[in-house]
Each structure stands twice: as structure tokens, then as C-alpha cells.
Amino acid sequence: MFEHPYLSHQVTVFEQEQIERAVARRRMLLEHADQIVPRPAGPLRRWLRRHGRGTPAPRASQTGACDPALAR
Known about the structure:
The chain has helices at 5-31, 43-52. The chain has 72 residues and is mostly helical. Helices cover 51% and strands 0% of the residues. It has a domain at 5-49. It is built from 2 helices and no strands.
């Protein structure tokens, strides 16, 4: 028994089409970033803000461990 190449070809074509659609979607979002309007907070997001998460934890500085040290 052997695997017919038709199925693997169809899967590959489908995955390539998905990737192309995702690239087009990202390109559109980057080109039209000024038109994106954030959604109003729904009931779950409001509940999480009040009860679940509280105040966000303080973030680390923007410099990473591999960034060069700044001269003083």
C-alpha cells in the first residue's frame, strides 16, 4: 500500500491559500491602520477588568538582555 500524492497535494494547496489570505489580511491591516476602531468593552472584558486581573503588573524596561549597554 502507498499513499496517493493527490491528498498531500490538496493539503499543500489549501495551506498555501490560507497563508496567502493571512498575508493579504495583514497587509490590509497595516495599510489601513488608521481606520481600525477598537471595540467597546463587552461584559466579559468589563468583569475581568474589575475582578480578574485588577491592575496590570509593571512591565520590564524596553531594553532586552542582549541589548548593548548605554554609555554614561
